[in-house]
Amino acid sequence: MKEILEAVFGLLIVPEAEDPLDSILAEQFQSSREQYEEEAQKSTKQTAATPIEDMEKELVAEDLSQAQAIEDTLTKQKTDPFNNKPLEVKDLKPNKDMRSMVRKYRESQIQESA
């Protein structure tokens, strides 16, 4: 784990412009290092100013609203949409793998927009 964190830290300090994750940032890094560093500092300040708890609350709120939408649909239509068999709210079970994938995707979106 330590090796992974050190590798990530190294990429944060000096990105590999020849093998970029974001070609636009790599171009900016190569053409205008000063502007790149200014933007990086600005982005870091904005992201660091938002506590992780607030970011998590935003993600959890979306999960809760989605769960509420599913429950609302089930009160109107009490059958499974795939097989038309009777279905109740108590029959629903969280898909932990899907939730984990969605959370990772949302976290990546938060980081990209920051």
UniProtKB/TrEMBL annotation:
<dbReference type="InterPro" id="IPR013083">
    <property type="entry name" value="Znf_RING/FYVE/PHD"/>
</dbReference>
<feature type="domain" description="U-box">
    <location>
        <begin position="68"/>
        <end position="109"/>
    </location>
</feature>
<dbReference type="Pfam" id="PF04564">
    <property type="entry name" value="U-box"/>
</dbReference>
<dbReference type="InterPro" id="IPR016135">
    <property type="entry name" value="UBQ-conjugating_enzyme/RWD"/>
</dbReference>
<dbReference type="GO" id="GO:0016567">
    <property type="term" value="P:protein ubiquitination"/>
</dbReference>
<dbReference type="InterPro" id="IPR003613">
    <property type="entry name" value="Ubox_domain"/>
</dbReference>
<feature type="compositionally biased region" description="Basic and acidic residues">
    <location>
        <begin position="87"/>
        <end position="114"/>
    </location>
</feature>
<feature type="region of interest" description="Disordered">
    <location>
        <begin position="73"/>
        <end position="114"/>
    </location>
</feature>
<protein>
    <recommendedName>
        <fullName>U-box domain-containing protein</fullName>
    </recommendedName>
</protein>
<dbReference type="GO" id="GO:0004842">
    <property type="term" value="F:ubiquitin-protein transferase activity"/>
</dbReference>
<feature type="region of interest" description="Disordered">
    <location>
        <begin position="29"/>
        <end position="53"/>
    </location>
</feature>
